[in-house]
Amino acid sequence: MLRELTEINGVSGDEGRVRKYIKEKITPLCDDIKVDSMGNMIALKKGTGETRHKIMVCAHMDEVGFIVSDITADGFVKFKPVGGIDKRILLTQRVVIDDVRGSVDGVIGIKAVHLQTADERKKVVPMDSLYVDIGAKDKADALKYVAKGDSISFNSDYAEFGDGCIKAKALDDRAGCAMLIRLMQLSCESDIYFCFNTQEEVGLRGVRIAAHRLGADIAFVLESTTAADIPFVDDCLRCSVQGEGPVISLLDRASCSDKYLNSFVIDAAKKHGIKYQLKKTVNGGNDAGAIQTSANAVRTCAVSLPCRYIHSPVSTVKKADIEDMYKLMKCVLEEINDFCAKE
After folding, report:
1. Which residue of 3, 67, 221, 285 has the fewest CB atoms within a 10 Å radius of its CB?
2. Half-sphere exposure of 315 (CA within 13 A, CB side)
3. DSSP secondary structure string, 253-306?
4. Contact yes or no for 58/221 (Cβ under 8 A)
């Protein structure tokens, strides 16, 4: 399922194919599904007993990518970023341009190193100097296949390698979506609202609407976060480490996690002998930031997979961390009523 999810293209604002896939998977697992005008999909899984608080569990469907901004007279496709992408990774990447008519392959190009000046070779190439080559002979030919506003995604296949590692695009946050689908198979005491949100990568836009409409009391955000267990990074700056379990956020640029909710999750991990780690840095942000300040305010907890090379076509996670994240969230959802009863 994770392979299939990561190989679907769904740049922010163009999540329809991802939503269709997920809806087919979850329809037999839930009691109600609603899709709002922002494209967020909220699925209710009714519990077996009393529900003390309204609980939501979230992941976002969108991925970083690009949007077609123009087509040159020579038939090359100009583009702008959608979400946070490091321009240093872009040269010669394979991409796919999608629209309602279908898709077309391309490569991100620039003039050859032989043609660059000595000064140009020393600098990171600005994104405005890049283009997508789809093999068109001129603008008229290119317009048969692409148009302004089309989405551009990395063309990167899912692969498994090394010591239980997975490489794919869009692991942020299709890994979270796959986790939600798996968790929906549980039978819990509380009603749980599983929310598959849109446009997280461009400002937490989708969940802002979904959270306001739902009016939850407690929210768990399942995400991916930066794994910095790589050479030349000091230990204190390694915000998370692969193989050490899911990452519990304390504070980031978007939200401040609820201390009591975090303690409940940590206690569950300790009680059941599940690996976990605390995020060491305050970089980044996720849907918890918009959820926390929506409506009457929501108590939030973000639980993430440590992911190397995030927001790239070769994002990497470990299977062991996925399993530990599932085990932890399974215990949390099965025991959340106990936490609510103490409130």
Report:
1. 3
2. 28
3. SS-B--HHHHHHHHHHHHHTT---EE--------THHHHHTSTT--EEEEEEEE
4. yes
Cα 171 from Cα 158, distance rounded (Å): 10
d(CA 324, CA 179): 11
d(Cα 301, Cα 281) in Å, to the nearest integer? 16
Q: Is 322 helix (H, G, I), strand (E, B) or coil?
A: helix
Which mean pLDDT values do the consecutive 10-residue runs of the chain (343 residues) have? 97 97 97 96 93 92 97 97 94 90 90 74 85 96 95 96 97 97 94 97 94 92 91 80 95 89 96 95 88 87 96 96 98 91 72
Q: What share of the chain is helix, strand, coil (3-state, %, to 5)?
A: 30, 25, 40
Which amino acid would we find at residue 46? K
CB-CB neighbours of 54 under 10 Å: 17
pTM over 0.85: yes
Q: Which residue has the tokens 């496709």?
A: 77
Q: For residue 178, which of 193, 164, 196, 163 has the smallest C-alpha distance?
A: 196
Rounded-to-10 torsion of CA 256, 196, 157, 87? -50
